[in-house]
Specification:
The complex is a heterodimer of chains A (90) and B (407). Chain A has 90 residues and is an all-alpha fold. Chain A has a single domain (26-89), classed as Orthogonal Bundle (Non-ribosomal Peptide Synthetase Peptidyl Carrier Protein, Chain A), CATH 1.10.1200. Chain A is 50% helix and 0% strand. Chain A contains 4 helices and no strands. In chain A, helix 1 (12-23) crosses helix 4. The longest helix of chain A is centred in the middle third of the chain and has 15 residues, at 47-61. Chain A is globular. Chain A starts with 11 loop residues before the first helix and ends with a helix. Chain B has helices at residues 8-18, 60-73, 81-84, 88-101, 112-123, 138-146, 159-168, 193-203, 225-228, 268-271, 278-293, 296-315, 334-346, 376-392, 399-406; strands at residues 31-34, 37-40, 43-47, 105-109, 129-133, 150-154, 176-181, 206-210, 237-241, 251-255, 326-331, 349-350, 352-354, 364-369. In chain B, helix 4 (88-101) runs parallel beside helix 11. With 407 residues, chain B is α/β, with parallel strands linked by helices. Chain B is built from 15 helices and 14 strands. Chain B folds into 2 domains: 5-53 and 295-406, Alpha-Beta Complex (Aspartate Aminotransferase, domain 1), CATH 3.90.1150; 60-293, 3-Layer(aba) Sandwich (Aspartate Aminotransferase, domain 2), CATH 3.40.640.10. At the A-B interface, helix 3 of A face strand 6 and helix 7 of B.
């Protein structure tokens, strides 16, 4: 998997774009993905699929997204924000 | 929203499965005829999904030991070790197990689930990290939720991935505890322990191995994968169960750590539940003695594994890559797996049906487990019935392709 370049400036929008792109492989529905999309409900992803998605995102952005945080991440926007915060904190 | 409304998707999935014939999650054994046979729906059925790897549930000496213990100590302890006291058998079993593993300390728990729950949730504190294999058993996931540590998940059986994830938290001050299993209960594959030990050493982490399905199964004397891989001294904590090869129920945690005993007054799943009853303690002590005295049982188990695994593989079934007493037939469609499972039961063969998300990567499994007490004829019959059902349901490749698949 291609890792993002460290020099690339990250904004919520481009993190969201990357996340939405990756999600396409894990989702079951075909509703458009927006910042407000509910990951479990709208995309019909079970707990295992959500954990597998998080794992791929960890590698994509080279961050840790601990399992403890997963229950708090409801929307795609929150997920993108979590990744952005981890990236800034790193 | 009603109290049970959120189970709608579970109810729908279970309903679809029950519509295939019977309820795979509600099987009743009306009578248990022997270690390998029971009456189910009025039929004599070969049991090929029990985890009873050494076939010790009816071992005459273990049964006699349990009966004697009931006569001497009663049917139950009616309380926890810390509040209501230990019986001599609890300590004796802990000593037996510590001796078996060549380690200093052992605690026994009331179930294997609680052993993982207690060990993992207590060893890792709020500033520590648990780094767990993605395909971990539910007891490991639940332990992570009970505890307060930060939990990171790494790709199944992938030491390079573990290394990468540990590197990301290298500058964090907390302790790091890696959690893996010996044999994985669903696919039957086992952890690359030597490689995990290298990663553990590189990062100064601790390693906990759950040997639930590998104790009494792997290693020259049955200590499990750590013995088979020669890494006894590099594993910091071992958990396991008495409900598989030991033929009873209960769990344990083993370690050489000098401060181990503090866990007895800190580990909630140990402290706040009733302790194992005298009969179980006695039968497990005897079963452990049988394992130590009769290595031929493990040899018989592996001969039986050959019969089942090779038979199914030659027929063209897709099995796990690593041969062992968990033989999982891989199917892709959960409903078809349910139909196949029912057809097997109607023909007198009981296996386990395992479905996502309890299984990895969306696979549906007809999970067989082999017992040392199976006769070759029984296992050949299981293969025969699986082939019949497989052919009827189109689960098998065309005959011409079978030889290629078996190679």
């Amino acid at each position: 998997m291609e890792m993002l370049q460290a020099s690339q400036p990250l904004s919520l929008e481009n993190v969201f774009t990357e996340v939405a792109q990756l999600m396409d492989r894990f989702r079951k529905g075909d509703a458009p993905i927006t910042m407000d999309t509910d990951i479990a409900q709208d995309l019909n992803m079970d707990s295992l699929a959500v954990m597998d998605l998080m794992m791929e995102l960890e590698d994509k952005f080279d961050v840790s997204i601990p399992l403890n945080m997963v229950p708090e991440i409801v929307s795609v926007g929150q997920l993108a924000q979590t990744i952005l915060d981890s990236k800034k904190g790193a | 929203m009603g109290l049970f409304d959120r189970f709608k998707s579970v109810r729908d999935a279970h309903g679809a499965l029950k519509a295939c014939g019977g309820d795979p999650f509600g099987v009743q054994m009306e009578r248990v005829l022997s270690t390998t046979e029971a009456m189910i729906e009025g039929r004599r059925t070969i049991l090929c999904g029990t985890n009873n790897y050494l076939g010790l549930t009816f071992d005459p000496d273990s049964v006699a030991a349990a009966q004697q213990a009931i006569a001497d100590f009663g049917t139950g302890t009616t309380g926890s070790r810390i509040a209501n006291g230990s019986y001599s058998g609890h300590q004796a079993l802990e000593q037996d197990l510590a001796d078996f593993y060549g380690k200093k300390h052992c605690m026994v728990f009331t179930t294997g689930y609680q052993a993982n729950l207690g060990a993992i949730s207590t060893l890792a504190g709020p500033n520590d990290f648990l780094i767990i294999d993605a395909d971990s058993h539910a007891s490991i996931y639940d332990a992570c939720r009970l505890g307060s540590a930060t939990v990171i998940r790494f790709k199944h059986n992938d030491p390079a991935d573990l290394d990468r994830r540990l590197a990301r938290i290298a500058n964090e001050p907390g302790n790091k505890i890696i959690v893996v299993e010996g044999i994985y209960s669903m696919l039957g594959d086992h952890a690359p322990l030597k490689e995990f030990v290298e990663v553990k050493k590189k990062h100064g982490a601790y390693l906990l191995v759950d040997e639930a399905h590998s104790m009494g199964v792997m290693g020259a004397t049955g200590r499990g994968l750590l013995e088979a891989e020669g890494v006894d001294d590099d594993v910091d904590f071992i958990t396991g169960t008495f409900s598989k090869s030991m033929g009873a129920i209960g769990g344990f945690l083993i370690s050489d750590h000098p401060e181990f005993d503090i866990l007895r007054v800190a580990c909630r799943p140990y402290m706040f539940t009733a302790s194992l009853p005298p009969s179980i303690i006695a039968s497990v002590r005897q079963s452990l003695a049988v394992l130590r005295a009769k290595p031929e049982l493990m040899r018989k188990l592996w001969q039986n594994v050959d019969t089942l695994y090779n038979g199914l593989r030659a027929a063209g079934f897709k099995l796990g890559a690593q041969k062992g007493p968990v033989v999982a037939v891989h199917l892709t469609d959960p409903v078809l797996a349910g139909v196949a499972w029912n057809a097997l039961l109607k023909r007198g063969v009981y296996v386990n049906l395992a479905l996502p998300p309890a299984t990895p990567s969306g696979t549906a499994l007809l999970r067989c487990s082999v017992c040392a007490a199976h006769s070759t004829e029984q296992l050949e019959r299981v293969v025969e019935v699986l082939i019949e059902v497989g052919e009827e349901l189109g689960l098998l490749p065309q005959p011409a392709l079978r030889i290629a698949a078996a190679e």
